[in-house]
């Protein structure tokens, strides 16, 4: 029983890492209707920005807040001067642009800060406490609670605030939103800026666990995209629950299913994804899209 609980706790902690990136992807999708494949690279860049502030003697909390502010501006600038040139066109072109942006950001980060593993301090202590036979680290608990709080805040933003409703309206129909008087351009910049700021939080949460490197979120991005599809790109709660589910099932499958083991555990979320999409193509918490013809 203790082993089972330990696997669940560790899965929730790792799932929270996937959820941090997945939430940033949801913000871009809710504000522009696009899937940003460069989100992992933007989060890593934010981590390096925070690391630079730490090198200047700035306290950790303030360094992360400043990194969030810088990332917000960078995200808005990227949307304004790069992504906007392709919005409204062929979606496949935009996908290629975001993949290229991921490669560019990773290369720039490696060029500026090197490809060496850098130690990034954690917001939470590394000590553990016992829970029903399992050892739960304060770092894992803090990451879990942080992601849960962000999930709730984003759900409130998109469903209860004028800014969130405006972002969703722009994503659904930019032309009608413009005719209604909404500042479409500024809202698109805000959406990308918010996603980049959330990426800074993701980078700060992940870097202490994996060490800071340009490619530290490459594999996590794959899981995050799976969580977005599984949970539904329109639901912050859905993608977080899906990310936690992926993390837990991945751990349980590696230990309790002999033919999977640790070598094939990466296949677990995609098997789950395949099964769910056969039943609910919009994801577990996603909304069905009705198209009038």
Automatic annotation (TrEMBL):
Q: Does the keyword Transmembrane apply?
A: yes
* A Pfam family the protein falls into: BPD_transp_2
The family annotation for this protein states: Belongs to the binding-protein-dependent transport system permease family. LivHM subfamily.
Annotated membrane-spanning segments are 7-28, 61-83, 95-115, 136-158, 187-208, 220-247, 259-279
Topology versus the membrane: Multi-pass membrane protein
Q: Which GO terms describe its biological process?
A: amino acid transport
Q: Which source organism does the UniProt entry give? A: Microbacterium album
Where is the protein found, in the record's own terms? Answer: Cell membrane
Instruction: Give me the Gene Ontology terms describing cellular component.
Output: plasma membrane
Domain of life according to the entry? Bacteria
- Which UniProt keyword terms apply here? Amino-acid transport, Cell membrane, Membrane, Transmembrane, Transmembrane helix, Transport
What is this protein identified as? Branched-chain amino acid ABC transporter permease
């Amino acid at each position: 029983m203790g082993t089972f609980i330990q696997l669940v706790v560790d899965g929730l902690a790792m799932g929270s890492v996937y959820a941090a990136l997945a939430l940033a992807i949801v913000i871009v999708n809710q504000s522009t209707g696009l899937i940003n494949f460069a989100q992992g690279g933007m989060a890593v860049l934010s981590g390096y920005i925070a690391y630079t502030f730490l090198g200047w003697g700035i306290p950790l909390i303030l360094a992360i807040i400043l990194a969030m502010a810088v990332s917000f501006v960078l995200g808005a600038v990227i949307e304004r001067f790069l992504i906007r040139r392709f919005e409204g066109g062929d979606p496949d072109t935009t996908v290629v642009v975001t993949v290229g942006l991921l490669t560019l950001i990773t290369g720039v980060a490696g060029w500026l800060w090197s490809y060496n593993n850098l130690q990034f301090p954690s917001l939470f202590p590394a000590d553990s406490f016992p829970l029903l036979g399992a050892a739960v680290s304060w770092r894992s608990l803090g990451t879990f609670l942080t992601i849960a709080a962000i999930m709730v805040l984003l759900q409130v933003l998109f469903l209860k605030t004028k800014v969130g409703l405006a972002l969703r309206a722009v994503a659904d129909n930019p032309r009608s939103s413009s005719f209604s008087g909404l500042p479409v351009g500024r809202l698109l910049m805000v959406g990308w800026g918010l996603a980049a700021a959330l990426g800074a939080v993701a980078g700060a949460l992940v870097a202490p666990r994996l060490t800071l490197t340009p490619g530290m979120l490459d594999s996590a991005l794959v899981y995050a995209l799976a969580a977005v599809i599984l949970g539904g790109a329109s639901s912050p709660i859905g993608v977080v629950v899906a990310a936690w589910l992926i993390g837990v099932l991945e751990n349980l499958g590696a230990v309790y299913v002999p033919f999977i083991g640790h070598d094939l555990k990466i296949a677990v979320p995609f098997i789950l994804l395949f099964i769910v999409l056969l039943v609910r193509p919009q994801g577990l918490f996603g909304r069905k899209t009705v198209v009038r013809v």
